[in-house]
Each structure stands twice: as structure tokens, then as C-alpha cells.
């Protein structure tokens, strides 16, 4: 039985992936960098440093990269009051806590951004610990953030499972030696989430199938 759950936030607990993509597109456009929404959207979930390099060939630690990221954060902050939890997210966290599972967040967001996301969603009091981009040298899909979260659980990797919504979550979890459940609410298809033990529509759908999910017992790859 699992003793701890590592949770992604964007797209998993909060419906924020489109807002992140829009903020990147707007920030890049202000610097004369025209990138399509669909191109950026497909990369949401990996670290912002990797995304910036991928879509514009800009190093995140360069003056231009730092300026774009700072502006992107300002734009995203304006979207925060309008963001909503994914369906059933808070209910799932409460259920997991009632099941006496330790809950640790592993997000590519910065620490202040992560705090704001959890607060807006009303979930900041339900999490035992958080790890953000500040706690890792390399961002997703590298496994550093998941490994940092694993350390926070105090459990061996075979007693921990992750819940995420992107291929980058799946890759990071598997590279860290952690099982993962994937959710479609972040915008990816089952084929793009290969490697997850199970795939559900959203937190509410996972909760509906909780007793038959990997959270209760190991399960093969399947879709609900």
C-alpha cells in the first residue's frame, strides 16, 4: 500500500495550463517573439527554462530570458483570481488525507507562484509539504523535483505514487522511480500519457474509481 502521494498542481489540481500558455505567448510577443499558442501549450508542464529554450532559443538565465519570465509572471498573476480547481480536486485531497496519506506537491512553478495557486484553489491547508522549481537544479521532465518531493515524504519510492497531468510528469516520476497516475484534465491524450499505471479524466473521476485504483492496489495501465 502507498503511504504518500506526490501531486502536480497546474492542470492536475488547478485548471491553469491555458493561462500559463497565454502568459508565455503574451510575454514573448512583447519582446517581438511571435510563438503560437498551440506550440507553447504543448510544452506546458515542463520547466519554464526548458520551454523558453524550446520555443524561442533563449536561455532562461540570459537578460532577455529573465525579462520575459518576469513579464510572464506578471501576466499570469492577473489570471490567478479567475482560475478554478479541476473537478473534484479538493474532494480528492480531503479523501487522501482521510486515508492517512502524506501529501507533497512537486511543481515546476516558482515557490511564490505555487503558494498563490494553492491558495486560490483553497487547498493550501491540505498539503503537508511542497517542492517547487526553487528546490531543484533541473526542471521537469528531469526527475529532480520529484526526487525532492520524495525526500519530503520520508518514504521509500515503492511506497509513494504521483498524480500528474502531462507527459513531463510521467517522465519525471518514472525517472525518479515513482509510480504515477495520470489525469486527462491537463489536455493530453491517453497515448501521450503512456507509462502511467492508470489514466482518469480528472480528480473527480479518480475519486469515483478510488477503491479500484492504484491508490488501493497495484493496477495495469488502463483508462477509466
What do these coordinates show?
This protein has helices at 17-30, 37-41, 48-56, 63-79, 89-98, 111-120, 144-153, 167-175, 203-208; strands spanning 4-7, 102-106, 129-131, 160-164, 179-183, 198-200. Helices cover 40% and strands 11% of the residues. The protein has a six-stranded parallel sheet, sandwiched between helices. It is an alpha/beta fold and 224 residues long. 49% of the residues are buried. It has two domains: 4-15 and 84-212, HAD superfamily/HAD-like (Rossmann fold), CATH 3.40.50.1000; 17-81, DNA polymerase, domain 1, CATH 1.10.150. The protein has nine helices and six strands, in the order βαααααβαβαβαββα. The chain is globular and about 50 Å long. Strand 2 (102-106), helix 6 and strand 3 (129-131) form a beta-alpha-beta unit.
Short description:
This protein is an alpha/beta fold. It has 2 domains: 4-15 and 84-212, 3-Layer(aba) Sandwich (Rossmann fold), CATH 3.40.50.1000; 17-81, DNA polymerase, domain 1 (Orthogonal Bundle), CATH 1.10.150.
Element layout with pairings:
Blueprint: E1 4-7, H1 17-30, H2 37-41, H3 48-56, H4 63-79, H5 89-98, E2 102-106, H6 111-120, E3 129-131, H7 144-153, E4 160-164, H8 167-175, E5 179-183, E6 198-200, H9 203-208
Parallel strand pairs: 1-2, 1-4, 2-3, 4-5, 5-6
Amino acid at each position: 500500500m502507498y503511504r504518500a502521494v506526490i501531486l502536480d498542481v497546474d492542470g492536475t489540481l488547478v485548471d491553469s495550463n491555458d493561462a500559463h500558455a497565454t502568459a508565455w505567448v503574451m510575454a514573448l510577443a512583447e519582446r517581438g517573439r511571435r510563438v503560437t499558442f498551440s506550440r507553447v501549450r504543448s510544452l506546458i508542464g515542463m520547466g519554464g527554462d526548458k520551454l523558453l529554450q524550446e520555443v524561442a532559443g533563449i536561455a532562461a538565465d540570459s537578460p532577455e530570458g529573465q525579462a520575459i519570465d518576469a513579464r510572464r509572471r506578471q501576466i499570469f498573476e492577473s489570471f490567478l483570481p479567475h482560475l478554478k480547481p479541476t473537478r473534484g480536486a479538493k474532494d480528492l485531497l480531503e479523501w487522501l488525507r482521510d486515508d492517512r496519506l502524506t501529501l507533497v506537491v512537486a511543481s515546476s512553478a516558482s515557490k511564490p507562484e505555487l503558494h498563490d495557486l494553492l491558495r486560490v484553489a483553497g487547498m493550501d491547508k491540505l498539503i503537508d509539504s511542497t517542492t517547487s522549481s526553487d528546490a531543484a537544479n533541473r526542471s521537469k521532465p528531469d526527475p529532480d523535483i520529484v526526487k525532492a518531493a520524495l525526500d519530503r515524504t520520508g518514504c521509500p519510492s515503492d511506497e509513494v505514487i504521483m498524480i500528474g497531468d502531462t507527459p513531463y510528469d510521467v517522465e519525471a516520476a518514472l525517472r525518479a522511480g515513482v509510480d504515477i497516475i495520470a489525469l486527462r484534465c491537463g489536455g493530453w491524450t491517453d497515448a501521450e500519457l503512456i507509462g502511467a499505471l492508470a489514466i482518469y479524466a480528472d480528480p473527480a473521476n479518480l475519486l469515483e474509481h478510488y477503491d479500484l485504483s492504484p491508490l488501493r492496489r497495484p493496477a495495469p495501465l488502463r483508462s477509466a
